[in-house]
Amino acid sequence: MADTSRPDHLPNLRADRQPPHPSWLPRQRRGITPQMIGRYPEFDVLATQDSWDDATRKVVLARLEPPGPLRFFTGAEEPTLRAFCDIVLAQDEEPRVPVAAFVDAKLADGQLDGYQYADMPDDRDTWRQVLRGLDEAAGQRCGKASFAAAAIPTQLALVDQFSRGRLQGGTWSELNVRRAWSVCMRMTLTAFYSHPWAWNEIGFGGPAYPRGYMRLGGPSGPAAVREPFESRGAIDTDPVELMHDEDS
């Protein structure tokens, strides 16, 4: 396990300016998390499913079913979609939350967020343009036919430029690049954190209905506010503080 009391685990102080591989976290011992690592190795949200009502249980358990073939994205777009989702979520080993399939299903069913930026196209068009733009950028940077075919360092670099709104030319000239990043990440993160495996990773106790939450106040301190069904983390390092340290 990495020593997070030292500053050299922070991306800005590492030679490649990338965060350490999350394998420094404990191995999951109960339930499933992405890549079978996480801060709560003894926690399994599915152990509490008997406290959910039937409708909630049906919705949540359906997310565990193996995804079928994509319905919105084409066969040519699929590799870039999957590579992008894996890179931005640092999912480089199994088990993975099937984020690409969730995004595809949402777009195929037209289950959009009900709003869009005034200077942006429909989210479905935005996604197609982003994937095309990533393929073009990979071709310009390393001569690869697609983003999915590029080496991981190249993918990371292109995603970093995308997040900063710095990709230009070709398809990118048709988009507000920063807003395109926001559109894609909103849907990607929503998909990831809707899955029980992600809940295990962050120690989320799952649906509150009809069980509810009891400890809404009281004395300060982690032990005072933890619900009976919640688990204490195996690591006390606060990831928010780590990010603040990195930015300082």
TrEMBL record:
Enzymatic class: oxidoreductase
EC id: 1.-.-.-
Comp. bias regions, Basic and acidic residues: 1-19
Protein name: Gluconate 2-dehydrogenase subunit 3 family protein
Source taxonomy: Bacteria, Bacillati, Actinomycetota, Actinomycetes, Mycobacteriales
Molecular functions (GO terms): oxidoreductase activity
Domain of life: Bacteria
Stretches the record annotates as Disordered: 1-30
Entry keyword set: Oxidoreductase
Keyword match Zinc: no
Pfam families: Gluconate_2-dh3
